[in-house]
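batch_manifest entry 22 of 60
target: Citrate synthase
source organism: Amphibacillus xylanus
requested by: lab member K.T.
priority: normal
notes from requester: please return tokens only, no post-processing; we will run our own comparison against the previous entry in this batch. if the run fails, retry once and flag.
--- input ---
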Amino acid sequence: MIKARGLEGVVLTDTKITSISGTKLSYVGYDLDDLVNYATFEEVVFLLWYKRLPNQAELTEFKENLFEVMELPEEIYPHIEHMDLNKIHPMSALRSVISLLGAYDPEDSLTHKDATMEKALRLQARILTVITTLSRLRNGKEILHPKKEYGYAENFLYLLKGDPVDPIEARAFDQALILHADHELNASTFTARVCVATLSDLYSGITAAISALKGELHGGANEQVIKMLMEIGEVDRAIPYIQEKINNKEKIMGMGHRVYKKGDPRAKYLKKMSKELTRKAGQEKWYQISEIIEEYIKKEKGLPANVDFYSASTYHSMGIEHDLFTPIFAMSRTSGWIAHMLEQYDDNRLIRPRANYVGPKKLEFIPISKR
Ligand SMILES: CC(=O)SCCNC(=O)CCNC(=O)[C@H](O)C(C)(C)COP(=O)(O)OP(=O)(O)OC[C@H]1O[C@@H](n2cnc3c(N)ncnc32)[C@H](O)[C@@H]1OP(=O)(O)O
Ligand SMILES: O=C([O-])CC(=O)C(=O)O
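--- output ---
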């Protein structure tokens, strides 16, 4: 038996979705740099699911199809209204509501491909509405309805904050969604694939994946980054704060990566966005503190910033609530999770590794009355 702690370096499967080579990242053969500069999130979702870029007519239809199913079904609202949304973390609420949406979605056979793609569309469209609805309800705001003329990123910002949607923010947010859309066999994607490899459905896979993304070693790191920035508060406190953490052998959230040892290719884009948007919001200090931390950790520990690091100050500068950062990651990654689950269905084998037993052996059984 081969043993690899944390499955480091283990190749589970072939994939046609995402490739990581050194510090180069591509989706279905397209360089991330081109996608982030020239594509929209919807084009990337289409690419991940259908393994080719859409033409204009296909993209228009895909966007319309997403829009058509964006509203939440009526039967979901009583469940949400029963949740104490000011106490429950939105990532937990999201996990539960996605599971509920699955309960109300028809249980079609997995061999019925069209039905599976319709489910995929409903999931991608409604995860947006779930997050914005959770936020608006807990803030006592009326629920808004998606607008057909808005793209996915714009609709998210609109449903969250209302009009007007700032075009600079909307483009940055769209790019952030592209940057988070897929990342090969990260922990949550692996979780989704393990789940559906039992021939469970897409909702089960997404619920499982959200659960895995929630942890702070994975997607949950972005919320921890903003928490850290807020604790630091001022530029001159950054170095002493980080030094103390390092002396206490604590991890610095948003730094380090299992695969990228020399740099995460997504981080430079988020860094640029953070610089521009914090400046636009008159909050440049969050970018400055982040940059000090990044340089210090690189020099002292040789660790690069990952995708979660600069997304924190970027989203903060857009006025997004901090506990929505990880749900937003989930919203984007739903596209990649779905792509991977579809790929898993296409060439499925149950995922079932082994464990090396190291506990006690041949113990004498003592009946409960004598223990
Ligand atoms: C979207 C994403 O999921 S990106 C990752 C998001 N997660 C984070 O930002 C959390 C902070 N980072 C980490 O915990 C890690 O770097 C991970 C989990 C991302 C990758 O971890 P692994 O490849 O398993 O590395 P591992 O945790 O074993 O660390 C190796 C060494 O580097 C150190 N290290 C790794 N990351 C950090 C960090 N962020 N801060 C300080 N030290 C770190 C570890 O303490 C360990 O040191 P040691 O060998 O002296 O014990
Ligand atoms: O690939 C990983 O291990 C984590 C990551 O960066 C991601 O999921 O985007």
